[in-house]
Structures are given as C-alpha cells and as structure tokens.
C-alpha cells in the first residue's frame, strides 16, 4: 500500500475513548486512546440527579456492560431500571462498567471502571504529557439530548447545555472543544450563547445532509454523518456549498472503510479502533 502524505491524513477521533480496546467512556479507555496517539477524545455526557455532568452513552445503566450499585448484573427490560437522571452521582460511581466486556468488542480488555465526571476526564487528559511537536488534545463532547427525553432522562436543553458549558469553560478548554449533538435544539442554543464554540451536527443514516444543515438555521463547524452515507458525490456537493464545513463521519472500524474515506478527503474519522487507523497511516 502506498504511503499516505501527512496532508492527506485526517484527524483521529477516539470514539468513547477507544471502545474496541477498553471499556467505553471510562478513564482507562480515554487514557489508552491518548497513549495510542489520538488527536481528539470523543465522549458522551448525561446528567445525574444532583446535576453532575457524567460521561455515559446512555442516560441509564446499560445491562450489557454495567453492574448495579450492589455489584449485581442487571436484567434487560423494555424500561431502563437505573435512570442516571434519577440517581445521585455518588451512587452512579459505585456501579462498575468495565468488568463486563462489551459483547460486540471481543478485543476489549476488561478492567474495573466507573462512569467518570466530565471534569475528571478533562483533568486526567490535561495531566498526560503530549509528545514534542504534537498539539494539545481536543475534545468532542456529545450531549445526549432528545425531545422525548426532556425532564425524563435529562434536563431541558437550555439547562443541560449550561451544565456542560460550565464544565468546559471551567477547565479552560473551550478553544479545543466541540459540542456534538443529534438534537438541533442543543446546537442552536450553543451557537446563540457561545458562538465561538465549535459545534457538530450529528446525523443518522436516514437524515439528508443538506436539508438537515438548512433546518439547523446556521452552518455548524462540523458535520458528523453515519460513515455509510459518505460518497464521492455527497462530499463534492458538500464542499461546493459549504467549503469551510468540516466532515467527520462516525463510526469507522474497518480498515477498508477508513482507506475509502481518507481517499474521499474527510477531515476526521471517528473510530472504536484507533490502533487500526494508525496502522494504516503510520505503518
């Protein structure tokens, strides 16, 4: 395979740290991703009953990967049994979410791990020295908001966003942070309250790119579509209409897909396997 020039290599975004290799959205996952050499740590945030910003993909304990506060397995049910928005963070922290290997990721190394606070992750990342010549780590923080979850699994958008922005600003990383969301309400509020903050509109596979950008009402910093929707034609059209809009598709785990997206000129790749990306780009 011919070597890639540095100018052709997109940013490496570690999805939930490095979910394919370590327990997702935990300190071990983020620290391992940093050790591998990601450019951006991608993570998800929810809110606890006592208004703490917690790193978690679901606003409940996922039975596939978490134990309950007593260390017992959680039975799957149509209605989540442990709603994090109804649990104080001290209780959430008692729940291990690292010992049970995610069934979809056989290479994942299991180890004890709790759901950390956003401020805990930002502090841990800050403490990790970057190699000489490498820029400071950046953060892609997805706010897990949806209209049907308001006041059930999370606060209403304005308060939810205010809690997250307070942590970003307190840590003084706003210049290196991007707020991601599938919920346009969050992004519109972020653009209104802190217009210098980078924003990323996330899209599911069935959501059209151009119509979704137009419906948002402003041009975000980044578009984050399902990688399967990225084609030469879609990229060309996006570049023509929005030349400054960055394109960072998710979640790309197979080397062949990574190479195809690199050839199409994406700006970043979000992956559960940073090691696979690095094997392609640096050998």
Low-confidence residue ranges? none
The H-and-E topology, N to C, reads as EHEEHHEHEHEHEHEHEH
Helix count equals 9
Structural category is: alpha/beta
* Fraction in helix: 25-40%
**Count of separate structural domains:** 1
**CATH architecture, please?**
Alpha-Beta Barrel
Computed Rg: 18 Å
Going by CATH, the homologous superfamily would be Phosphatidylinositol (PI) phosphodiesterase
* Strands, total number: 9
CATH topology annotation: TIM Barrel
Under the CATH scheme, which class?
Alpha Beta
Shape: globular
Spatial gap, N to C terminus? 10 Å
Strand content: 5-15%
Overall average residue pLDDT: 96
Largest sheet: 9 strands, mixed
Domain GP-PDE: 10-281
EC number: 3.1.4.46
Organism: Hymenobacter artigasi
Enzyme class: hydrolase
């Amino acid at each position: 395979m011919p070597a890639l020039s540095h100018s052709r290599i997109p940013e490496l975004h570690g999805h939930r740290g490095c979910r394919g290799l370590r327990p997702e959205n935990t300190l071990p996952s983020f620290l391992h991703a940093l050790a591998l050499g990601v450019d951006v740590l991608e993570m998800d945030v929810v809110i606890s009953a006592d208004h703490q910003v917690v790193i978690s993909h679901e606003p409940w304990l996922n039975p596939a990967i978490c134990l309950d506060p007593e260390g017992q397995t959680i039975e799957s049910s149509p209605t989540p049994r442990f709603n994090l928005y109804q649990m104080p963070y001290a209780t959430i922290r008692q729940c291990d979410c690292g010992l049970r290997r995610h069934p979809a990721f056989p290479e994942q190394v299991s180890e004890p791990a709790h759901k950390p606070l956003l401020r805990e992750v930002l502090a841990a990342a800050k403490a990790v020295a970057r190699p000489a010549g490498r820029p400071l780590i950046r953060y892609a923080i997805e706010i897990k908001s949806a209209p049907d979850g308001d006041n059930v699994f999370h606060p209403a958008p304005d308060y939810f966003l205010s809690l997250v922005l307070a942590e970003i600003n307190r840590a003084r990383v706003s210049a290196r942070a991007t707020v991601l969301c599938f919920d346009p309400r969050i992004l519109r509020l972020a653009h209104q309250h802190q217009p210098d903050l980078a924003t990323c509109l996330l899209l599911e596979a069935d959501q059209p790119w151009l119509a979704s950008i137009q419906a948002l009402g402003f041009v975000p910093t980044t578009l984050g579509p399902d990688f399967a929707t990225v084609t030469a034609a879609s990229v060309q059209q996006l570049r023509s209409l929005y030349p400054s809009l960055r394109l960072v598709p998710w979640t790309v785990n197979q080397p062949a897909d990574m190479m195809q997206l690199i050839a199409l000129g994406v700006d970043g790749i979000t992956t559960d396997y940073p090691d696979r990306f690095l094997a392609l780009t640096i050998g």
